Amino acid sequence: MRAARLTAWREPLEIGQVADPTPPEGGVVLRVLACGVCRSDWHAWTGSDPDVVLPMIPGHEFCGEVVATGAGVARWKTGDRVIAPFILACGRCGYCAEGHQTACDNQVVPGFTCDGAFAEYIAVAHADTNLTQLPETMPAEIAAALGCRVTTSWQALVGRAQLKPGEWLAVFGGGGVGISTLLLGRALGARVVVVDVVEEKLAFARTLGADAVVNAADANAVEAIREVTGGGADVSVEALGIEVTTVAAMRSLRKLGRMVQIGMPAGEHSAMTLPMDALYSGQLTLQGTRGMPSWRYPSLISLIEGGHVDLSPLVTRRIALSQASDELAAFDRPAPPGVAVITDFAS
């Protein structure tokens, strides 16, 4: 099969032929229909993720068609179109039994602990536990986003912060996760303010219905949010994984506010100095989140199929496999609005 492999940190991916994957016991092989290029892939590309051992095929945000099944697979057959969370849970450990598949003791993470979906085919472990039927009406490039950015945002808002209609939601970062959080937050009835330092991204957020935007390069984001919301946001989401925005996300909350850390703190940001005085005096709730358990897919898909949220503006670039390296390198600087999805694996 044709694949793009990470063979050296910060170097262009090596595109060529590699052996087709075979289905593991309890797993399947998918023909990849689409795969997003995510900031987490950039972390792997830069060498910031200790789980990645070279060579590795990146790509964790995918959808596909089942082309082979392994022994023990009961729910899926050849020809099924499916999506999967990027954390493939075992379904057997204590965390999985409690419904916390994202904390699975035996998790498999494509693109990080095993080869991912920057390829024509991918092997997917624990298929019966993780796969969900892809709605026929959903385009593949939109479905790919349900593997990471959209689902991570959904888990943050519904599973962690328990966002309520009418609340103010402050989103720090106008990239793929931030825009997903904006779209889902509005669908849940919240009022949303988006913070970034790139005016183009803020203009994009305005077109998608943001109630307010703040350019943190020109204004004090905390003060601006407190003014817009009348005292502070009820919920804040940090979608970049850096100290300055994490601190601002905490300080932008009103008393008893809830913050969810979606952005992955890596490299120099893996350890941060946080305003614990704000946590204490504001009686804040600070939570981390990573991915989404597969059992939450039905509620999210129902929201989408019911016409309550339109995710089509999220995907702004449909690219070929040969362009993946350029998209990874683009994360070294403020990337353009929206997300890139690989839909052409032949060129």
Automatic annotation (TrEMBL):
Keyword match Oxidoreductase: yes
Taxonomically, the superkingdom here is Bacteria
Write one Pfam family the protein is assigned to.
ADH_zinc_N
Matching entries from SUPFAM superfamilies are given as: GroES-like, NAD(P)-binding Rossmann-fold domains
Enoyl reductase (ER) domain spans which residues? 8-342
Reported cofactor(s): Zn(2+)
Concerning SMART domains, the annotation shows: PKS_ER (SM00829)
Keyword vocabulary terms for this entry? Metal-binding, Oxidoreductase, Zinc
Listed PANTHER family: ALCOHOL DEHYDROGENASE-RELATED, L-THREONINE 3-DEHYDROGENASE
Family from the record: Belongs to the zinc-containing alcohol dehydrogenase family.
Protein name, please? Zinc-dependent alcohol dehydrogenase family protein
Species of origin reads Lutimaribacter marinistellae
